[in-house]
Amino acid sequence: MMTLYDYLPSQNAYKVRLLLSHLDLPYRTEMVSIFEGAGQHPDYLAINPTGAVPALQLEDGRVLAESNAILTYLATGTPYLPSDAFAAAKVQQWMSFEQDYVLNIASLRHWTMTGKLARRPAALVEMRRAGGLRALQILERELAQRPFICGDSYTIADISLFAYTHRADEAGLPLREFPHVCAWLERIRAQAGFYAEHHPYAIDPHSSAELP
């Protein structure tokens, strides 16, 4: 059985849980206490050199880290990743967008929910806020044209983008001002096997640990 190395409040780990739920695949969970330093333990660094979650250990012992890489592996040969080369590349295009643009929402949310926002330089906070709004604006424009980010079908690109976008209000961003994004979020929630469970942060705001 596969093993998912997880930290429940991590939305990067949530991406993998969501796809596993859609696929109805069995797996076991190994919790990694990121904020207590478990990610930097030598045993875990042998699994994921960055010390972050998620990581997925396959039945044969091989390990994959980085959420979007794990999504790609799990979705190969399923409806969540097209077999057509161009369509598959479009999925990767939007997963790259998630890493480059939606990361702003992720960072801002993390600082807000862990009490670190006031400790960040105002210019950096404003840069992240502007970047997060830019991500939402781009998604709003694109999702006005089609039901899912790559077209008519729900793919791992939607799963990747959903993870932090649907928590944008926790970053202090006005999610309700983007109606096409909100409608897309509801379409995702309506998918068979949707994983709805949410786990808030419960850590010391004075911790120096960063986004898992």
From TrEMBL:
- InterPro entries in the cross-refs: Glutathione-S-Trfase_C-like, Glutathione-S-Trfase_C_sf, Glutathione_S-Trfase, Glutathione_S-Trfase_N, Thioredoxin-like_sf
Q: In which domain of life is the source organism classified?
A: Bacteria
Record's keyword terms, sorted: Transferase
Listed GO molecular functions?
transferase activity
Under the heading PROSITE patterns, the entry gives:
GST_CTER, GST_NTER
Q: Which Pfam families match?
A: GST_C_2, GST_N_2
Q: Domain GST N-terminal, which positions?
A: 1-82
GST C-terminal domain mapped to chain residues = 84-212
Mind telling me which PANTHER family this protein's record contains?
GLUTATHIONE S-TRANSFERASE GSTA, GLUTATHIONE S-TRANSFERASE-RELATED
Q: What is this protein called?
A: Glutathione S-transferase family protein
Native organism is Pseudoduganella guangdongensis
